[in-house]
Amino acid sequence: METVAKRLYEGMFLVDSAQAAADWEGTLSVIETILKRADAEVVSMQKWQERKLAYDIDHKTRGTYILSYFKADGPRIAGIEKDVLLSEKVMRVLVLGTEKRPAEMIERDIKGEPAERPAEAAASPAPAEKPKDTSAKPARDAEPEQPAETPSEPAAGSTSEPESEVVATEPEKAPE
Predict the structure, then answer these.
(1) 3 state SS for the chain
(2) Phi-psi category of residue 159: left, alpha or beta, with phi > 0 → left and psi -120 to 50 → alpha
(3) Nearest CA to 11 among 84, 62, 63, 61?
(4) Phi, psi of 63 (to 5 degrees)
(5) Domain limits at 93?
(6) Alpha-carbon distance 34 to 31, whole Å?
(7) Is 128 inside any structural domain?
(8) What are the angstrom distances between the C-alpha of 99 and each of 9, 25, 116, 169?
(9) For residue range 28-68, what is the model confidence (pLDDT) as tens digits?
(10) Is 170 within a domain?
(11) 116-138 per-position pLDDT tens digit
């Protein structure tokens, strides 16, 4: 008999917000039943967020996301996804492997701790890119002025001259 080591997976289940509010324990038990049918060991299960959906799903505009960590055999994941398709309470599911996620992030999610947003925002490269954008703007403004100063070259939007002349003047602009 072959023994397969169970791996840790992250599952994001989407349920109708109205049904979740009316029967929270029943909603959790449906998800637990789906996971137990796949012989999965539930490590953590908690409400993640309630949000307006980007598009209607079965005429529903709001959804509640439930974040779950569980250990299961890889081939059993397809069974979980199939059970969600057949379920009337769970609208969608996304199951991901956790091998590439840092262990600290997984532990924070399992404990229910919020992610450190200020540290992530300070480490992002966005502030370094802003000076590049502002230095690039004067150069763009200067380019249109140069063709306007030379009266021998036609304007870029000019339609009175044939296209062959416009093509002939473009190589002269390149060396400048």
Answers:
(1) CCCCCCEEEEEEEEEEHHHHHHCHHHHHHHHHHHHHHCCCEEEEEEEEEEEEEEEEECCEEEEEEEEEEEEECHHHHHHHHHHHHHCCCEEEEEEEECCCCCHHHHHHHHHCCCCCHHHHHHHCCHHHHHHHHHHHHHHHHHHHHHHHHCCCCCCCCCCCCCHHHHHHHHHHHCCC
(2) alpha
(3) 84
(4) -145, 155
(5) 7-115
(6) 5
(7) no
(8) 9, 30, 21, 58
(9) 999 999 999 999 999 999 999 999 999 999 899 999 999 99
(10) no
(11) 654 444 454 544 444 444 444 44
Sheet harboring 7-16: ordered strands across? 41-57, 60-72, 7-16, 90-97
Total tally of structural domains belonging to the chain: 1
**Domain CATH for 64:** 3.30.70.60
Cα gap 175→39, rounded to integer Å: 70
On whether residue 70 sits in a domain, the answer given is yes
Whether residue 37 lies inside any domain: the answer is yes
Q: Quick count: other Cβ atoms within 10 Å of Cβ 62?
A: 14
CA 63 – CA 14 distance, rounded (Å): 6
- pTM for the complete prediction? 0.61
Dist CA 60 CA 17 (whole Å): 9
| 34 and 77 Cβ atoms separated by less than 8 Å | no
Distance CA(82)–CA(176), nearest Å, equals 64
Cα–Cα distance for residue pair 107/93, rounded to 1 Å: 21
Residue 157 is encoded by which pair of tokens?
């939007």
